[in-house]
Design brief:
Nucleotidyltransferase, domain 5; binds zinc ion; globular; binds 5'-O-[(R)-(carboxyoxy)(hydroxy)phosphoryl]adenosine; 348 residues; 2 domains; alpha/beta
Length: 348
């Protein structure tokens, strides 16, 4: 293990939503540890993330998660070069826990601080395990998560331009809401995917909202409403679920998943065409979806586009992707001030 502790060694903290995570990464590519404490149990009965409960769970979990990340990496604070933390976007109360912890460690240990944009970290997470010469940028990045659905042009990790984003629900949010409508549990993505495997994706004709012909924005609230009315009856928001057979539910899940995936793939290919880019990177929780991974692979193969899918373990929120982005900031000398504040939005 000659260069396992190649500099910089970054301790990263991620608390933007409902996962408390800490990771240690050396030299930008060696993930020495990546500890994720999920809060599924806390939020499951509400069918979505409850911000106050998320903040409280971060407070309870963070200390242990950071300790574990250091222990698994087998290093003490003396080997850490900098502390990276997600400072935006996300739930402000949740971000605040991570940012405060990171500032405290930076001050107490005398280490520089790095403020990471969560969306940029998802956008570049497909590169976490790649060797340096194999960097995938310039690329189009599709970030599909519970809070965001965005297309970006990545010149390099420190030069990322937003091309389009959702004007209402995020793709993952739609998965979670449809799972709720079908009473399948939370989080919706994985359970919809499992249910959809037994269903017919052509059974229901759900809308594929493309907006204007050349638009790189997304809209997923229409499909959510279409599923709602399909289950309960036109204009109704309750009743009807009991009349559906397990096969009906599987068909709805499969048709919904197919419609969302069709839109994501079509818009990504449109971004590729508009910007004459030859590489696509995909990250975020919904990037774990097998149908999306397969359809993107097929679309990119047909067009001779390089595709870098984020490894499954780095799709949902994790500290490793924050450490990777922290490494780029560190190498560029872009350190943060101890006065940084968490921000809910991606941009100023
Ligand atoms: O990136 P992430 O952990 O959190 C945010 O930054 O929002 O993404 C979580 C989202 C949830 O909406 C979850 O339902 C979705 O990712 N998700 C999936 C799958 N696994 C997680 N959606 C579709 N298919 C999956 N296999
Ligand atoms: Zn995320």
């Amino acid at each position: 293990m000659p260069d396992l502790y190649r500099r910089p060694v970054i301790l990263a903290i991620e608390t933007s939503c409902d996962e408390t995570s800490a990771a240690v990464m050396a030299g930008g590519h060696h993930v020495l540890s990546n500890v994720v404490a999920t809060q599924f149990d806390v939020h499951a009965k509400y069918g979505g993330v409850v911000p106050e409960l998320a903040s409280r769970a971060h407070i309870e979990n963070l200390d242990g998660v950071v300790q574990e990340a250091l222990e698994l990496a087998g290093i003490g604070r003396d080997r850490i070069d900098a502390i990276a933390v997600t400072s935006r976007p996300g739930l402000v109360g949740s971000l605040l826990i991570g940012v405060t912890a990171a500032k405290t460690l930076a001050l107490a240990w005398g280490k520089p601080l790095l403020a990471v944009n969560h969306l940029h970290a998802h956008a570049c997470s497909a590169a976490i395990d790649l060797d340096e010469p194999a960097v995938p940028w310039p690329a189009i990045a599709l970030v599909v998560s519970g809070g965001h659905t965005s297309l970006m042009r990545v010149e390099n990790p420190l030069d990322i331009r937003l091309l389009g984003c959702t004007i209402d629900d995020a793709a993952g949010e739609a998965f979670d809401k449809v799972a709720n409508i079908l009473n399948l549990g939370f989080p919706g993505g994985p359970v919809i995917q499992r249910t959809a495997e037994r269903g017919n994706p052509a059974a229901c004709d759900f809308p594929r909202t493309m907006l204007a012909r050349d638009s790189l924005d997304f809209s997923f609230s229409g499909i959510k409403t279409a599923v709602l009315y399909h289950v309960h009856g036109p204009g109704k928001t309750a009743g009807g679920l009991e009349k559906l057979t397990p096969q009906d539910v599987a068909d709805i899940a499969a048709s919904f998943e197919a419609a969302v995936v069709d839109v994501l793939v079509a818009k990504t290919m449109l971004a590729v065409e508009q910007t004459a880019t030859h590489t696509v990177m995909v990250g975020g929780g919904v990037a774990a979806n097998q149908r999306l991974r397969n359809e993107l692979a097929e679309a990119c193969r047909r067009r001779n586009i390089n595709l870098h899918l984020t490894p499954m373990r780095y799709c949902t929120d994790n500290g490793a992707m924050i450490a990777a982005m922290g490494t780029y900031l560190h190498e560029a000398g872009r350190f943060a001030d101890l006065s940084i504040e968490p921000r809910a939005t991606a941009m100023e």
